[in-house]
């Protein structure tokens, strides 16, 4: 779907003759180049996983967090330009805090996603700002249960059962569609997400990666946190075994 | 009344200067808090009254709250300032938990934060009109400390605020010893609270006892005191 928008792609405030804003599409390309981020809504909560491509062997495992808590009950996984992602997370934290300060209650996930989407959209309206080069998967648990939203660089945000962004998003989406999410618990979901990420990691193109996962569910007391180490290890082993079984065929 | 739009930079403590009036005197106040270290942690007792001058106006105020996973905060003095302090601490605990790094704020850290807040407000002649008692357990170590509205802060094995200093502490000095069992600790606190009920005119007979151990905070059900001792557990709101 690549087309050269010569002349119409220099500014985010210019439309092309066929009604496209090329700068926003180029921003989406930045997201497509990053490691895959997967989010699913299970029966009792949300699970999010990130395929963190390791740039250098010198990096300490566990550093460069790609999943951030935005409040007690919500978290964001970021794909794309990491620095842009930091800004979006900071804004989301601030919005959540400000909502609580004014209305006295934890921000509903829908409201938070609308505010973040509106902020991302803001940066597509002025020529002296560039669009954010990152997509965000926002998972949260409020009075209406667990919810998953995805916000793209264009500023649109939709609610999903399962979402994926980044390099392997097509393959990930196919895998997610195979899962029966409404019957899965988060514990099972963690294993499935690990399997998906291991499966779509391209060994040839990118050498090493680190798996980072987080969840919000009844087991985590409806708080967004890293998946506990023992469960994460269990998921990684299950994923590696599944891969070997596939390769053996 | 001018309405100032709240400035949210994630640090509401520093915005206190936006308020155009300074605290000159307290309005709704809570009376003493008494707290002791015991074998498994810390025990704290407070009554549930809020006085409006000489009127005992509010009779269902919880003056002890859990802070994070490891601390328990009790306050005497202006109730609205206590609620403001709880908001500052909520922000502190939230920011700490969002790091998600396996670490969490301990009682010593919370006590230090409160000391800084109280002292800096006092230096601006706009104090938070409270005496705070901070107890907690982290990694097996018990901690009990106090901060006053002028920023005086210290740790001890047993603390009390307000009238408790004069009426309860002499009892504690005589009868407190290290490694009190839970039952003995509760009995000791009940004794102190009974003396306070007799002699402190702003004390009411409805009280709560909270305990904090390595497992966390438990606040007891509401207890009713009378001259025969701590009697019933209250089921619903009553006029006492």
TrEMBL record, chain A:
CDD domains: proteasome_alpha_type_3
Cellular localisation: Cytoplasm; Nucleus
Keywords: Cytoplasm, Nucleus, Proteasome
Highest rank taxon of the organism: Eukaryota
Principal place of residence: cytoplasm
Domain Proteasome alpha-type subunits: 8-30
A biological process from GO: ubiquitin-dependent protein catabolic process
GO cellular component terms, semicolon-separated: cytoplasm; nucleus; proteasome core complex, alpha-subunit complex
PANTHER family linked to this entry: PROTEASOME SUBUNIT ALPHA/BETA (PTHR11599)
UniProt record similarity statement: Belongs to the peptidase T1A family.
Subunit structure as annotated in this protein's UniProt entry: Component of the 20S core complex of the 26S proteasome. The 26S proteasome is composed of a core protease (CP), known as the 20S proteasome, capped at one or both ends by the 19S regulatory particle (RP/PA700). The 20S proteasome core is composed of 28 subunits that are arranged in four stacked rings, resulting in a barrel-shaped structure. The two end rings are each formed by seven alpha subunits, and the two central rings are each formed by seven beta subunits. The catalytic chamber with the active sites is on the inside of the barrel.
Function: The proteasome is a multicatalytic proteinase complex which is characterized by its ability to cleave peptides with Arg, Phe, Tyr, Leu, and Glu adjacent to the leaving group at neutral or slightly basic pH. The proteasome has an ATP-dependent proteolytic activity.
Protein's recorded name: Proteasome subunit alpha type
UniProtKB/TrEMBL annotation, chain B:
Location relative to the cell: Cytoplasm; Nucleus
GO biological process, one term: proteolysis involved in protein catabolic process
CDD domains, A to Z: proteasome_beta_type_4
Pfam families, alphabetized: Proteasome
Entries under InterPro entries matching the protein: Ntn_hydrolases_N, Proteasome_alpha, Proteasome_beta4, Proteasome_bsu_CS, Proteasome_sua/b, Proteasome_suB-type
Gene3D superfamilies on file: Glutamine Phosphoribosylpyrophosphate, subunit 1, domain 1
GO cellular component assignments: cytoplasm; nucleus; proteasome core complex, beta-subunit complex
Record key words, sorted: Cytoplasm, Nucleus, Proteasome
Family designation: Belongs to the peptidase T1B family.
The protein's role, per its UniProt record: Non-catalytic component of the proteasome.
Quaternary structure annotation from Swiss-Prot or TrEMBL: Component of the 20S core complex of the 26S proteasome. The 26S proteasome is composed of a core protease (CP), known as the 20S proteasome, capped at one or both ends by the 19S regulatory particle (RP/PA700). The 20S proteasome core is composed of 28 subunits that are arranged in four stacked rings, resulting in a barrel-shaped structure. The two end rings are each formed by seven alpha subunits, and the two central rings are each formed by seven beta subunits. The catalytic chamber with the active sites is on the inside of the barrel.
PANTHER family: PROTEASOME SUBUNIT ALPHA/BETA
Name under which the protein is recorded: Proteasome subunit beta
Provenance organism: Brassica carinata
């Amino acid at each position: 779907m690549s087309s050269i928008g010569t002349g119409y792609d220099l500014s985010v405030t210019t439309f092309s003759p066929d009604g496209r804003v090329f700068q926003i599409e180029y921003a989406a390309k930045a997201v497509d180049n990053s490691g895959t981020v997967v989010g699913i809504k299970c029966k009792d909560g949300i699970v999010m996983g990130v395929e963190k491509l390791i740039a250098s062997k010198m990096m300490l495992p566990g550093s460069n967090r790609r999943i951030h808590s935005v409040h007690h009950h919500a978290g964001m996984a970021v794909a794309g330009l990491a620095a842009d992602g930091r800004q979006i997370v900071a804004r989301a934290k601030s919005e959540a805090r400000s909502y609580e300060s004014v209305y006295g209650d934890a921000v509903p996930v829908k409201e938070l996603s609308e505010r973040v989407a509106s902020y991302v959209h803001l940066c597509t309206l002025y020529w002296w700002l560039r669009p954010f080069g990152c997509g965000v998967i926002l998972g949260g648990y409020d009075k209406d249960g667990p919810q998953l939203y995805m916000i793209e660089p264009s500023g649109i945000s939709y609610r999903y059962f399962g979402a994926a962004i980044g390099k392997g998003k097509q393959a990930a989406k196919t895998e997610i569609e195979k899962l029966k999410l409404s019957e899965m618990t988060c514990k099972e979901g963690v294993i499935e997400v690990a399997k998906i990420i291991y499966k779509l990691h391209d060994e040839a193109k990118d050498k090493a990666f680190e798996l980072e996962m987080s969840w919000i569910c009844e087991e985590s007391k409806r708080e967004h946190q890293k998946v506990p180490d023992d469960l994460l290890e269990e998921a990684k082993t299950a994923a590696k075994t599944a891969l070997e079984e596939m390769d053996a065929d | 009344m001018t309405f100032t739009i709240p400035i949210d930079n994630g640090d509401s403590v520093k915005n206190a200067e936006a308020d155009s009036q300074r605290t000159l005197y307290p309005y709704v106040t809570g009376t003493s808090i008494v707290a002791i270290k015991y074998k498994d942690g810390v025990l704290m007792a407070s009554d549930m009254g809020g006085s409006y001058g000489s009127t005992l106006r509010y009779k269902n105020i919880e003056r002890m709250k859990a802070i994070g996973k490891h601390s328990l905060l009790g306050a005497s003095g202006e109730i609205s300032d206590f609620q403001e302090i709880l908001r500052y601490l909520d922000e502190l605990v939230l920011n700490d938990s969002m790091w998600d790094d396996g670490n969490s704020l301990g009682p010593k850290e919370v006590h230090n934060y409160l000391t800084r807040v109280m002292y800096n407000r006092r230096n601006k002649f706009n104090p938070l009109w409270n005496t705070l008692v901070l107890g907690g357990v982290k990694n097996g170590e018990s901690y009990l400390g106090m901060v006053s509205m002028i920023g005086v802060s210290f740790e001890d094995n047993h603390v009390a605020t307000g009238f408790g200093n004069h009426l309860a502490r002499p009892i504690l000095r005589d009868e407190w010893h290290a490694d009190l069992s839970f039952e003995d600790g509760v009995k000791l606190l009940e004794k102190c609270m009974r003396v306070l009920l007799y002699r402190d005119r702003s004390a009411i007979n409805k009280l709560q006892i909270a305990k904090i151990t390595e497992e966390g905070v438990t606040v007891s059900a509401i207890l009713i005191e009378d001259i025969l001792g701590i009697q019933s557990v209250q089921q619903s709101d009553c006029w006492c």
